[in-house]
Amino acid sequence: MADKLNDLAGRMGKAPKGLGLGVKLLAAGAAAAYGVQQAMYTVDGGHRAIMFNRLGGIQDYSLTEGLHFRMPWFQYPIVYDIRARPRKITSPTGSKDLQMVNISLRVLSRPDSLNLPQVHKELGQDFDEKVLPSICNEVLKAVVAKFNASQLITQRQQVSLLIRKQLTDRARDFNIILDDVSITELSFGKEYAAAVEAKQIAQQEAQRAAYLVEKARQEKQQKIVQAEGETAAARMLGVAISQNPGYLKLRKLNASKKISATISQSQNRVYLNAGSLLLDVANPSFDIGINATAKPTDVVGLATS
Predict the structure, then answer these.
(1) Whole-prediction pTM value?
(2) Sign (positive/negative) of CA torsion 123, 128, 133, 136?
């Protein structure tokens, strides 16, 4: 084994002299390429970068999109995503009339690209996790406490605008920009929902009772009008009989038609005389009966006049 190693060493010692120089140049080129690669970095679209210097710390400027250079090991970039990110925050709070309200917000937030070094020094890259939950809860409780439970529903747009304004101002103190703040959910406790339902049922029952009262009043008025109409019809009938006794003959003939039509459809055989069929209108006794009927009507008419 020792002989083989000695033989290999002898062969390498006999290599051409230019080979060592070539290896050195190749190594230098690789080191230069690695250094250039480490000295360049790219900031993607929708991002900004701040530079950390091992000697001076965070620099007071931010770098825009594109290709940039740095000193390897002494400097390294910290890249921030400045695009708006959605976040949903839910907070149970109390209204002005001491009703529990569950309200949810959808917030679109992003860091202020002009103050990224300050954001990194004070908050770090998880700035939204540290700031938004606390200020959202604070603003929600402050705004909701100004309205009653019913006003939160009827004046929802005004509540949303007030929350957005105050929340935007609070986020500005931390160099955070809010592009949109909207209420996505607004619900009340079980007790309040039960009370609202009971109130609606009571209102519906009251409306139904009012409808029944009005219906009874209309039916009463209808009966009064009907009774007055029947009284007027009876009075007019009496006047017609007193003025023209032949009206009773005409009514008697109509009645005889109905009687004969009913009997003709019957399967039994019935024998009726003219008096039973009310056809004895030519009998003198009929006129005597008419005159006897008409005389009281004339007396009533004279008394009325």
Answers:
(1) 0.58
(2) positive
